[in-house]
Amino acid sequence: MATRRERIISLLEERDYSVSELAQVLGIRGKGSKRLILEDIRAIQKVLKREGKVLLIKPAECRKCGFRFKPEINIPSRCPRCKSEWIEEPRFMIAGR
Ligand SMILES: [Zn+2]
Predict the structure, then answer these.
(1) Distance between CA atoms of 15 and 92, rounded to whole angstroms?
(2) What is the number of domains present in the chain?
(3) Where in this chain does the record put each PF0610-like rubredoxin-like zinc beta-ribbon C-terminal domain (predicted)?
(4) Which residues constitute the domain of residue 63?
(5) What CATH number does the domain containing 60 carry?
(6) How far is ligand 1, taken at its centre, from the CA of residue 14, in Å?
């Protein structure tokens, strides 16, 4: 049986996902589920480097003013420009070289 991280890798090799979408597909609920998946993605990024693959990050975006965050493995809670908390999550995908 595949581990959670292995399942995330095969999902991200198919198409891009947000952390919320991954939580839904993997059936991980509750407080801390997003943080858990973010930790998985950080660990996966390190493994991928050794395999010659890359993690592509579509950065988070403010849905109110359009501010673009840095492409990081993190979910910002608030827009630094307009202070809105209506944030589009970053999306992740795995690409081979
Ligand atoms: Zn904003």
Answers:
(1) 8
(2) 1
(3) 59-94
(4) 4-96
(5) 1.10.10
(6) 31
CA of 6 to the centre of ligand 1 (A): 35
| 43 phi/psi in degrees, rounded to 5 | -65, -40
34 alpha carbon to ligand 1 midpoint, in Å? 22
b/e code 22-49 from CB counts within 10 Å (16+ = b)? bbeebebeeeebbeebbebbeebbeebe
Ion ligand 1 nearby residues (CB, 5 A): 62, 64-65, 67, 79, 81-82, 84
For 9-41, write each residue's pLDDT tens digit: 999 999 999 999 999 999 999 989 999 999 999
